[in-house]
Amino acid sequence: MRVRGRDLDLTVVKTEYILPLFKQEWLLGTNSVTIKPDKLENMLFEVQHGRDIMLQLLADENYTKEQGNYLLASIKNLLHIEDSIRNIRDEKFITRKELKNSIRNLRGDFRDGFRFYVNPFYESSR
Q1: Are residues 81 and 109 in contact, defined by beta-carbon separation less than 8 angstroms?
Q2: What does the alpha-carbon distance between residue 103 and residue 54 come to, in Å, rounded to a whole number?
Q3: How many helices (H) and strands (E) does the chain have?
Q4: In the chain, what are the helix, strand and coil shares in percent, each to the nearest 5?
Q5: Is the pTM of this model over 0.90?
Q6: What pLDDT sits at residue 8?
């Protein structure tokens, strides 16, 4: 893609839409948070959207095999996060302690997903 005589890197452009997924206030802060069911639904939608963008990148860009594998691993990570969100959302009988642990694990999954997307995939595609 070219804009005003220079190449526009689709990976950079699409990453602008993926990064907010990992910049959610509840992920960045250290305070305890309350996550209501509608927040879980929004979170699930955002993760699915991020996964769709990554799939589009995988289909549209010409990455090396290694970069493609990194991107595929990031997609799998988002699928895991989707499953975790659904499990939290759909759990009917859960103790406060179990819920707290599930949210803590979800936070860790998001943080790991960010690190794994940026390093090694994004950095290797630069």
Answers
A1: yes
A2: 24
A3: 6, 2
A4: 75, 5, 20
A5: no
A6: 53
Taking Cα atoms as reference points, which of 9, 24, 17, 2 lies closest to residue 54? 17
> What's the Cα-to-Cα distance from 12 to each of 7, 15, 30, 70, rounded to whole Å?
11, 5, 29, 16
Residue 24: which of 3, 53, 1, 44 has the closest Cα?
A: 44
Residue-wise pLDDT tens digits, 14-46: 999 999 999 988 888 877 778 888 999 999 999
Integer CA distances (angstroms), 91 to 34, 38, 47, 107, in order: 16, 15, 19, 18
Tokens found for residue 78: 């988002």
